[in-house]
Amino acid sequence: MRCAYLLLLCLPACGGSSGGSDAEPDAAVNYSNFQRVVTATGMTPDAQVPVSGSHNYTGQMQLDLPLDDSPVTAYYGALDLTLDMGSSTVAATGTADGFASAAGNVLDGALTVSGGLFLPDVDPVPLVIADLEGALYDGNDQFDLEAEMEIHFYATDATAVSGRVFSGSITHGAQVDVFDGTFAARKSP
Q1: Which domain range does residue 35 map to?
Q2: Considering only CA atoms, which of 81, 155, 150, 154 is closest in space to residue 119?
Q3: Across 112-127, average pLDDT
Q4: Which of 81, 75, 80, 90 is nearest to 180 (CA)?
Q5: For labeling, which of 35, 47, 113, 135 is most exposed (least CB within 10 Å)?
Q6: Tens digits of per-residue pLDDT, 150-186?
Q7: d(C-alpha 124, C-alpha 106), whole Å
Q8: What is the domain count for the chain?
């Protein structure tokens, strides 16, 4: 009994308490949990990847952004994505907005999803590449972002998507830096 009591006393000092300063912020935990749920079912089998029709997804995006001279910070936002599939083409459209850091720093503006390249024969599974670009604002400071999205299908009948944001460039005045990120979304009605 005394050992259990001592263990309980040590937990806050060891980061075992949810109220300690070492606890992961809610935004990061929420995103991580959402992404884990979306991808838990595994990638969609090749035969179930859509090759026609319009497919709408709603979810979240996380971007690791270097704003000015600040260290790279994770920002979490909402993602709305539509994939209009053809047998060898895709039109990707959508927006990512409402970005905020776990510390509460809010970025105004939005990013637009456009373009689309359907790669049905990529090993191990088919995927879509789309463009992501737009401007985010930290107060009066404008940051122009350009990147690519690698979109993978998840679950039976592609009821979810997840992937990475890569080859990102972020421009603020004459300063240019790189960024990346991830996203996850579920099919919406």
Answers
A1: 2-187
A2: 150
A3: 88
A4: 75
A5: 47
A6: 999 999 889 999 999 999 999 999 999 999 999 999 9
A7: 38
A8: 1
Torsion of CA 29, 33, 34, 38, to 10 degrees: 160
Which candidate, 29, 37, 27, 30, places its Cα nearest to that of 185? Answer: 37
pLDDT at 68: 79
- Residue whose C-alpha is closest to residue 151's, from 66, 72, 76, 84: 84
Q: pTM for this one?
A: 0.85
Residue 152 burial (CB count, 10 A): 20
Q: Which residues contact 128 (CB under 8 A, 6 or more apart)?
A: 83, 90, 92, 116, 117, 118, 119, 149, 150, 151
Amino acid at the residue 26: D
What is the DSSP secondary-structure string of the chain? -HHHHHHHHHTGGGT-STTSTTSPPHHHHHHHHHHHHHHTT-BPPGGGS--SEEEEEEEEEEEEE--TTSPPEEEEEEEEEEEEE-SS-EEEEEEEEEEEETT--B-EEEEEEEEEEEETT-SSS-EEEEEEEEEEEETTEEEEEEEEEEEEEESGGG-EEEEEEEEEEEEETTEEEEEEEEEEEEE--
